[in-house]
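2024-03-11 09:14:02 DEBUG pipeline.ingest accepted 1 chain
2024-03-11 09:14:02 DEBUG pipeline.ingest length=513
2024-03-11 09:14:03 DEBUG pipeline.predict start
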Amino acid sequence: MTRPNIVWIVCEDMSPHLGSYGEKVAKTPVLDQLAKESVRYTQAYSTAGVCAPSRSALITGNYQTSIGGHNMRTLGFSASATNDYPPGLKPYSAVIPADVKCFPEYLRMAGYYCTNNAKQDYQFEAPVTAWDESSKKGHWRNRPDKNQPFFSVFNIETTHESQVWLRAKEPLLVDPKSVEVPPYYPDDSLSRQVIARFLSNVMVMDKQVGEIIQQLKDDGLYENTILFFYSDHGDGLPFVKRELYQRGLKVPLLIKAPFLPKGTTDDQLVSFVDFGPSILSLAGIPIPKSMQGQAFLGSQKAKTNRKYIYAARDRMDSEYDRVRAVSDGRFKYLRNYMPEKSYYQDIKYRLQNPLMIHLLDLKKEGKLNTQQLYWFRPNKVQEELFDTQQDPFEFVNLAKNPSYAAKLAELRTKHEEWMSRYGDLGAINEVDLVKKWWNGQPNPPVTEKAIVERSNGLVKLTCPTSGASIGFRTKAKGPWQVYTQAFSVNPGDSLYVMSHRIGYMPTEIRVKN
């Protein structure tokens, strides 16, 4: 069969600030044109209000709470060097279930050339079998055979939370006087300045998307390539990012494909756990039973549309919390498992945002009104229910309102069924969870060496470690191939073999031929 080329363009930390979604201040001509050529999804949701847990769900097709990718973040920090993480916690790769893999590995096994440019942030070290190339140079243009189908991901950091302060000296592309200030911020010059900076970054991102699209056109690939554009979660601003409100979870999603109707809208619920299954479905590759999401496109599209989306909040850097959410697209149910915690948490990284400092200063001075103080309530109620259509900022908790008792019971039940079906590792102390994964040892388990067998001129590879992926190559610096079946090696070539169970340490061996 002819397998389609697929490209993901992923921006960071952005709610649906596109003209096609009603944005009036930031100008996004590239993405507005893409929307005219795409299906525009109005109900697409991340599984977390922050990147690493949501990317864990994206790359596996599984809820991060069920595979151990729920705490933000597990890699890329030094607990001994900073106060950004809880005492005693050391960086770790989540030891995900043995039957769960990065979904691009299945694409590679089917003959795809897979690249990631360049952010991973999956809560675990990806095995060498996940990508042909994962670097700032990752590109479909690097595939050795130009007829080989490809799956290429491009991550655009321009709208990330950090760019609000890192790009603070760049010229604004929107007038601060024209921005809309949400009611949870004071309507003053600093709030408007920060929002204008963020929306200016959106406009820069739009141009960067245009550069990737132009490359597809230059290569004669644009018309027949399936193209996804989406954000990894909502806006990178205070009381948005990390939260489970609509503004933290709802993302833009545009999908262009030759077989999809152009300039149309789709209101079905879509979750990040559905992306991986949908890509496999589009590529004609069987969806593994281990995936918890459902395909919303392709030959294996689910018979019924999703009725609920689910999301979770757990540790954010140094601060622990545990909140779970379920939504039917209009009504949102939140279960607070640590009601003794404040809604606001003093996260060091976020204190670099001038708007965060501003809010804290005004709070100290007693200058915030009731809605602006909403975030700073000292503790939580166990259950919350919001009508996001009538109450878009989710200020009015309907959980005690008898008129909504049936909806509260429905969503509470769906939350509990979700927990029962998939499990929730957030219920386990993080340090204890890592100890369990590591069998009480101070370091992670090590993937066993691959076993190399030769027969009739062919090499067969196996690994005793359950769930291990096996990569091989014949040159020390060459690309890693995914092992799928016995293969031949030229006389005189060395053979390098890497075995890696996700969450374990990988093991590489060299075999002389």
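2024-03-11 09:14:41 DEBUG pipeline.report The domain at 451-512 is CATH 2.60.40 (Immunoglobulin-like).
2024-03-11 09:14:41 DEBUG pipeline.predict end
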